[in-house]
Structures are given as C-alpha cells and as structure tokens.
Amino acid sequence: METFYLIDYENVGSEGIAKCGGLSESDHLIVFYTENSRKIDLDIIDNHGDALLETQKVPAKKQSVDMHIVSYMGYLIGKSEENPIKVVIVSKDKDYDNLIKYWENKTEIVRKQRIEVEKKPEEKANVPQTEAQKKDESSEKKRIKAELKTQLNMEIQKILRSE
After folding, report:
1. What does the pLDDT look like over 25-78, one tens digit per residue?
2. Which residues lie closer than 8 Å to 49 by C-beta, 6 or more apart?
3. Residue 124 has what pLDDT?
4. Which CA distances in Å does 42 have to 14, 25, 45, 47, 114?
5. How far apart, in whole angstroms, are the C-alpha atoms of residue 159 and residue 163?
C-alpha cells in the first residue's frame, strides 16, 4: 500500500521530517510550503530513505498551505478508489482532524506532528552477508520451494481424483 505524507512545512518545519530515513519506495513525501516558510535543512530533506520526494510551493495567503493540502488529499483519495492508499498529514494543526473524520471511511488517514520512521539497525550497518549466511538463505529458499511443490502436487492430485 502506498503512503502519502502531506507535509505542512510552515507548521512543522524540518523537525516534522527529521526522522524519515526508513521510508520505503512505496512512500511519498509531499512538502507544501510558501515563500514565507522557514529555511529548509537540506541534510534533513536529503535523508528521506527510499521515498519519492516532491515539493509544492503554493501562494503565500492566509491558510494557503492548509487549503492546498486538503485539495491534494481529496485528489489522492478520489484517484485511488481502485487501489487503497494511506494518507498521513504531518502538521500540528488540529483543524485537519474534522476532515480526517470525514474521509476515514474512504481511506486510511491520520495526522501526525512528525514522521518517525528511522532505519532499522541492520539497515544502518549495511553489512554484507558471509558465504555461510548466503548458503543458509539459499538452503531455506530451496526447502520452501520444495514444500510448495509438494503442496501443489497434492492439490492437483486431489482435483484429478475428484473428476
């Protein structure tokens, strides 16, 4: 399932997206900001894991970022009727909560004040596998494949007997 993080950058700043290094390819970070937004910490922006990062500069007007996030959220929900998605609004602004209640029967939707999806310790280390580990993994895959073949064979025999 794809997850769309709609970031109210004027509201949460860099702290709202500081811990997103563990995001995956199925995650989308969409940062909404105006010319009045605080400076963006590029080190934090750069550390977004494997997520697709998109920025949306919107006009600097009263509640402009909020309105654009709500509009984009409705677009995503309408577009994804066939394929369920998750929407995470990243903001301290509780005004989004009524909209979340409205849409929660259509899609999985929440509001968070910050993203906290850090890399797992084994991902941080990025230690290559030893030859023994590779052999163990290969043996396990072969065992599972053999079990699946046996199950499939039994199912086919059962079907053939019943005809």
Report:
1. 999 999 999 888 767 777 767 788 889 999 899 998 888 899 999 999 999 999
2. 20, 21, 22, 23, 24, 27, 117, 119
3. 46
4. 9, 20, 5, 9, 17
5. 7
In this structure, what are the phi and psi dihedrals at residue 68, rounded to the nearest 5 degrees? -70, -40
Mean pLDDT computed over 137-154: 73
What is the pTM assigned to this prediction?
Answer: 0.70
Scanning 2-130, the segments in alpha helix (DSSP H) are 9-12, 42-46, 64-79, 96-103, 121-125
Beta-bridge partner residues of 108: 86
Counting Cβ atoms within 10 Å, is residue 125 exposed (0-12), middle (13-18) or buried (19+)?
exposed
- Candidates 122, 109, 10, 111; CA nearest to 55 is 10
